[in-house]
């Protein structure tokens, strides 16, 4: 009997030591931590991003991001990986409420998030839609525009009136990704204006007019040369003219009655890069690098097209990846009759064409050879390289006509001049709208030397 009791006691003690100190299941964003991955979070999905695929040295995969807000109005970013994309992408919808569990809690990248943590979900995740009792509301923490100068690098919410809407601008990033952006100018009742850049889908499809009240969640305060705001991919949310948000109504009243009586303070200074660069004549350009072994400089030049090298067409364009909208990698026709892009890892019977032309530019003082790649040459020629290539094959006369129309055409451009080991190479960076006045000033300056 005694013996038996003792055994029972020992076994109880044993059990106690093997049970970890009990932790409560986290039910809200503010109780989540990386120490405690046991959570059961009830939250509303406020933004859901597109599926993204990656392909790098560590392998391939896919993901999508969502922003979840809980009953306290606190927000957290969730990322779904691979099988979780297959299982949950269709299920998870914006403005619906779910119980999220069986994921991991990680430290968030504060560059893209206003929360310390983020959630990740894989195939083990449990996400169950629950009844929306209307208790989960998005929580905005609006920043006045006049305070943004002190918040560079932070993520903020904004309630502002649109006073300017720019055009959708398409361009290619340094990583050869085709991007679209639209810049809005917005003002709030601190009577301060700032530029807000919308990207891609939001740039193209978000309908905003002058006088609209824009309510934005998760904007990045940037300071690239000048203070401005930018949307963050998959995270920013924009609502236009939502009268249910009291701040929006107050602001609209301010805009109608007060705005315009005093000039606004402008946080974003318009900067045109080419305005800041040295403007040189072509003879000055020659002189600048004479005798130099190494160096690099961005300069603005203006003149006219003297000559385009066209010994054979391969000196005008090259065969490029068929996805030349996003990838301008050179491809070579293999023995199998197929083109392989080593960057996209794709093989195709088709290719496209991209410019790589040598152009002699002339002005009143001299001439200079520059290289011109797809973006700049397209602007100079007026046609894509693929179109011109087709023309060359089908209608040589018309092709010659296009090529012969180019000499004499005026050009103003930003050019990057590099010198390595005494050899100079110049590449057109961007083609500007010609400004006759400035060319004239330069000409007069040259005369007075
Ligand atoms: Zn490619």
From TrEMBL:
Alphabetical UniProt keywords: DNA replication, DNA-binding, Metal-binding, Nucleus, Zinc, Zinc-finger
Subcellular location: Nucleus
Every OB domain range: 41-119
GO molecular function, one term: zinc ion binding
UniProt keyword Ribosomal protein, yes or no: no
Domain Replication protein A OB intervals: 152-240
Keyword Transit peptide tagged: no
Domain Replication factor A C-terminal: 302-423
Pfam families: Rep_fac-A_C, REPA_OB_2, tRNA_anti-codon
Gene3D superfamilies: Nucleic acid-binding proteins
GO biological process: DNA replication
InterPro entries, alphabetized: Euk_RPA1_DBD_C, NA-bd_OB-fold, NA-bd_OB_tRNA, Rep_factor-A_C, REPA_OB_2
GO cellular component, one term: nucleus
Family under the similarity heading: Belongs to the replication factor A protein 1 family.
PANTHER family: OS03G0429900 PROTEIN
Protein name according to UniProt: Replication protein A subunit
Organism encoding this protein: Fabrea salina
Lineage: Eukaryota, Sar, Alveolata, Ciliophora, Postciliodesmatophora
């Amino acid at each position: 009997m005694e013996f038996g009791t003792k055994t029972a006691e020992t076994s109880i003690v044993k059990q106690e030591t093997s049970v970890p100190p009990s932790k409560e299941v986290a039910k809200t964003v503010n109780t989540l931590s990386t120490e405690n991955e046991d959570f059961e979070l009830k939250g509303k999905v406020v933004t859901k991003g597109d599926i993204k695929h990656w392909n790098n040295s560590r392998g391939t995969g896919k993901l999508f991001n969502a922003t979840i807000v809980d009953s306290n109005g606190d927000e957290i970013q969730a990322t779904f990986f691979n099988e979780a994309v297959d299982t949950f992408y269709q299920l998870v919808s914006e403005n619906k409420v779910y119980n999220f569990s069986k994921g991991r809690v990680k430290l968030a990248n504060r560059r893209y998030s206003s929360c310390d943590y983020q959630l990740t979900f894989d195939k083990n995740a449990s996400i169950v839609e629950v009844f929306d009792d209307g208790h989960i509301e998005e929580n905005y923490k609006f920043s006045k525009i006049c305070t943004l100068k002190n918040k560079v690098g932070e993520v903020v919410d904004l309630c502002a009136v649109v006073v300017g809407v720019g055009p959708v601008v398409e361009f290619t990033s340094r990583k050869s990704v085709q991007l679209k952006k639209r810049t809005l100018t917005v003002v709030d009742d601190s009577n301060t204006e700032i530029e807000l850049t919308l990207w891609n889908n939001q740039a193209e499809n978000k309908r905003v007019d002058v006088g609209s009240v824009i309510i934005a969640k998760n904007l990045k305060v940037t300071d690239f040369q000048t203070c401005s705001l930018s949307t963050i991919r998959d995270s920013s949310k924009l609502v236009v003219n939502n009268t249910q948000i009291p701040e929006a109504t107050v602001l609209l009243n301010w805009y109608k009655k007060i705005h315009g009586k005093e000039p606004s303070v402008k946080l974003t200074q318009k900067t045109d890069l080419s305005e800041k660069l040295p403007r040189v004549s072509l003879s000055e350009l020659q002189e600048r690098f004479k005798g130099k072994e190494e160096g690099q400089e961005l300069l603005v030049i203006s003149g006219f097209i003297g000559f385009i090298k066209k010994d054979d067409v391969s000196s005008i364009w090259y065969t490029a990846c068929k996805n030349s909208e996003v990838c301008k990698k050179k491809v070579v026709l293999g023995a199998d009759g197929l083109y392989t892009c080593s960057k996209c890892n794709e093989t195709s019977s088709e290719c496209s064409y991209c410019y790589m032309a040598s152009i002699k530019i002339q002005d009143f003082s001299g001439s200079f050879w520059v290289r011109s790649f797809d973006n700049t040459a397209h602007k100079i020629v007026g046609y894509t390289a693929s179109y011109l290539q087709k023309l060359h094959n089908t209608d040589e006369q018309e092709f010659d006509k296009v090529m012969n129309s180019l000499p004499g055409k005026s050009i103003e451009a930003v050019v990057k001049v590099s010198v390595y080991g005494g050899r100079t190479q110049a590449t057109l960076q961007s083609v500007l709208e010609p400004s006759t006045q400035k060319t004239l000033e330069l000409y007069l300056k040259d005369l007075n030397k």
